[in-house]
């Protein structure tokens, strides 16, 4: 087994440790200086990590999760599924900005997770004729915008968004609430297979995971986090679409909503989002394009950040991590650069004095350079 395979097994193993979620996992990797060191450090050092108690430390040191990790690695490769670690270049950079982003993603898809333009489209499972009409009109008109459509492969708006995208050869990605060894609901298998031609499937859940109720809110945060904006076509005042919209707002992403008639329960959620100034009102694809600053003539240009001249090698390494993003988590910055915390603090202070970046609440760093 090669070095890459061993790294992936360690990554999977960490995701299986009881009591370790995405936020704590990133802290562990940062404090220990790498994924391998997490399992080789002492209990005394583990207990110095904020949020990690003796029970979780014992779970890490037992390494019982490695047997299951080996099984998972073999199962995913048999299914042709790729693993993305949150420090990998192919990991969705938009999602990486979110503090609670999963450390692992399982994917079976084309390389469109970091496409310059990604739009999430969500809504009710009980779509009305009005919602169906608006969804089809907006997405049909989006075929010339060079975008990727993300949704959750559920009944209603999700299914229609994926199907309309496929019909018009728009890449589309399904973020699912179960392992990629199955498709749920099974009625959507034919559509899901067609999606693989230009898009594909993504999940944070390992093989064998059922579409349990508690998985769907977790799925929704990924839909919101990996997209430039979330468009709510039609939704009641409660439900998964509202969760996705509020996640997008929390991640400082654009929220868009199609208005409905006053008193119409199917559009109550959309009207609420617009009324509370959480979402911008959208009636057609031009509204989406205008809100996001997407100009058709610029659609095929990649997202690039111009860097100030005369940066040192170390400063260039820091600046490179901000590509496609204005903010980054300090723990992620440390884990990516793999330098001593004291050295990193000095480097960041020098760059702050040069007005290249600034610390902001939540242990995050904001890029100020050109």
Describe it.
With 370 residues, the chain is an alpha/beta fold. It has 3 domains: 3-77, 5' to 3' exonuclease, C-terminal subdomain (DNA polymerase, domain 1, Orthogonal Bundle); 109-298, Rossmann fold, CATH 3.40.50; 313-367, Arc Repressor Mutant, subunit A. It is 43% helix and 13% strand. The chain has helices at residues 3-16, 22-32, 35-38, 43-46, 54-62, 65-78, 93-96, 129-141, 157-167, 189-195, 215-225, 240-250, 268-275, 285-292, 313-320, 330-337, 341-353, and strands at residues 82-85, 104-109, 118-122, 148-151, 172-175, 200-203, 229-232, 254-257, 280-281, 327-329, 357-360, 364-367. Helix 1 (3-16) packs across helix 6. The chain is globular, with a radius of gyration of 21 Å.
